[in-house]
Amino acid sequence: MADQDETYIVGPLYKARDKVYPAAVHGRFRRIKWTILCITLGIYYLLPFVRWDRGPGMPNQAVLVDFPHRRFYFFFIELWPQEVYYFTGLLIIAAVALFLMNAVAGRLWCGYLCPQTVWTDLFYAVERWVEGDRRERILSDKRGWTFTHIRQVALKHFLWIMIGWWTGGAWVLYFDDAPTLVKDLATFQAPFTAYLWIGILTATTYVFAGHAREQVCIYMCPWPRIQAALTDEWALNVTYKGDRGEPRMSVKKADAARLQGEPAGDCVDCHQCINVCPTGVDIRHGIQLGCIQCSLCIDACDSVMTQIGRPTGLIGYDTDINVQRRREGKPEIYRIIRPRTIIYASFIAIVGGIMLYSLATRGTMGINVLHERNPLFVQLSDGGVRNDYTVRLLNKRGARDFVLDVVGLPNAKVTVAGETREQDGRMMIDVGQDQTREIRMSIEAKDDNIPPAPVDIEIRITDPATGTSVSKHDHFVPPTR
Prior knowledge:
Elements: H1 28-46, E1 63-66, E2 71-74, E3 77-79, H2 85-105, H3 108-113, H4 115-131, H5 134-143, H6 147-172, H7 178-186, H8 192-212, H9 214-220, H10 223-230, E4 237-240, H11 242-245, H12 251-259, H13 272-275, H14 296-307, E5 315-318, H15 320-327, H16 339-361, E6 365-371, E7 378-379, E8 385-395, E9 400-407, E10 413-416, E11 421-423, E12 426-431, E13 435-445, E14 455-462, E15 469-476
Antiparallel strand pairs: 1-2, 2-3, 4-5, 6-8, 7-8, 8-13, 9-12, 9-14, 10-13, 11-12, 14-15
Helix pairs in contact: 1-4, 2-16, 4-6, 4-8, 6-8
């Protein structure tokens, strides 16, 4: 039981959000981020309009998810629903690639490639263009709702909504012919689901990139917690080099301290690394959950170091091992290539190689055979025996005829229910473009040709134009003797 004199400190369960006002920054990493932003958003917004000729009667959109015909097209690749394992392979590669990036340089994905980072960067750029940089935005918020501030905020939110609207519009273009769907959307003739998804993605983009921002990275995204368990001491991370920067003091005080032989660090406590951070993190406190490692603090610090005539690199990519080695006066070492990265890279190469080989060697036709189980065989009045099968033929190209053969039971009679024809004594089955066809096939063995036990048979289809064939094995089952 607690002592009656014991006091308890009661505080809030949740910390209120501190609004972040990131300042504009110029430098190498900012240029890299702008380049990645332009490339990734350019691909996302423009890719639906890229054309790819697949021949007559085929869609000519380079990337298309065709739900009505159950196809996925990616340039020269065409995937069917039963080939979903390719998507499984891509998901595996994506996951291991995240592990590899984390092993090499921490949160590379978060800082440069994550959609939340890319769109938030774009929204911040719009905000600066409309309302000004960090100081102007802070002053505007302090002054309150003046006419100028209202006009700027209204324009900013309008542009944000337009970006969100086009983000949702670009998404639905991947599911239908883009030029046609754009016309239908403009004339209000598009399906309701298209408008619904545009509305949903407009809202989510506007909320996540315009309002939630760093809250998504800190509270909603699971990856920061996962990657923290996967990282090791050799991974490069954006790091403040405290052994060089501490103790912090102004330029004049540092010069005076050095003249007197006292320790003085290179950090002048200018707070520029905090001011440019999109999540409001002070990198000098070490690696934190909120740090997405976008490297903008490196550009800000390097700019200050250049202005005061001190070496750059006070904040930079570094490892926990090197932090400790510098404290001990040892030289820095880097090991990007190590067992962990080799394993990840090898796994990606193996899975990718298997997928490429499978794509390169897969056929454009297929066959599946299902033996009738009830009954396994039918005894005919003339003494013969019949087995029935359900055969499904798959055609991944234009309309064509397949030759149907049965191998393994000599002198057997093969019949197919429905529309079939014969050519040069061979049974021809026509299958439409990008279609499957299910047929009912019967195999009869005469009384003098009934095998004494079940025999293995091969049911084969051949494309007479190319000579390509595929087959499935099954059994012909006779009566028990």
